[in-house]
Amino acid sequence: MSITNGDLFSSNKKIRILIVGLLFAIFTVPAVPDGISIYPEIKKMESSDLIFRQITEDIDSYYQNYEQNKELLPLQIYSYTTVNDTTIFILAARFNIPYETIVTLNSLSRPMNISKGTKILIPNTPGLFVRDQPVSDLEFMVKSWRDISESLELTVDNKGSEIFYFLPGKKFHRVERAFFLGIMFRFPLPTGYISSGFGNRIHPINGTNDFHNGIDIAAPMGTEVMASRGGTIKTTGNDAVCGNFIVISHENNYETKYCHLKKIIVQLNQQVQSGMIIGLVGSTGMSTGPHLHFEIRTAGDPKDPTLLLPGNNR
Description:
Blueprint: E1 2-3, H1 14-27, E2 41-42, H2 50-67, E3 75-81, H3 88-95, H4 99-105, E4 119-123, E5 127-131, H5 137-144, E6 152-157, E7 161-168, H6 174-180, E8 193-196, E9 199-202, E10 209-212, E11 215-218, E12 224-226, E13 231-239, E14 243-249, E15 254-264, E16 271-272, E17 277-281, E18 291-298, E19 301-303
């Protein structure tokens, strides 16, 4: 499948069109009954595989042409079914293409292991694929920060047809990269401002020197509190200091804690997704007014949440 878009994807020479068409005829089969297209299939990640050699040559040409400000080859998408357990980073290195290109085309949200027998789509051009209808936090983030008005619109058939916008040559922002790699959390409230930061401070109630293990986020009573990242409800309870509180355990030994809640609306051992509503802002326990005390810990050690959130400008 070749897709062009004005100056970005100009028509190439007839000989290349004939070659791509021939490869399609040899290495693909007609559409399956439910209408999902089959992309040219890479059998082996070896130069003896004509399709693999074609895509790697295309990617090399992209880097050369982009550097010299020459016309780019038409976008072409191929498929590869893994023959062994692998990772996105290994695939990206093997194809000499940024991992975020593979991640966004295949709608991946974290660097999970890829099992043997998994079909992965690989394009011949580095860039970002922006999903028209985002479903993950990462996809919402990628779309919200990008101008797609001059991008290439295409339909991608991978477990169903989806509309994507392609931005050639683009990569993740620093925050997107950190979020994908699992060292980033989302802001736990839809609105609010940080009224007390992480670290040493004078306690607002007893006036003593105090180390603040998290941040306080001031917000109206009853504001919905969201899970800052997907995980499992480890603890819920009430004590004199935190009032009603929730602790969520996450991958890589991370935990988040939510205190002074008016109401807890999740249960012990419940699985939650990032952004799921888990409680309501309150002023229970040792509190001077409605706010959320929010902590992030790794292996039990408190971390400054502002270093792990997408932004602290709220």
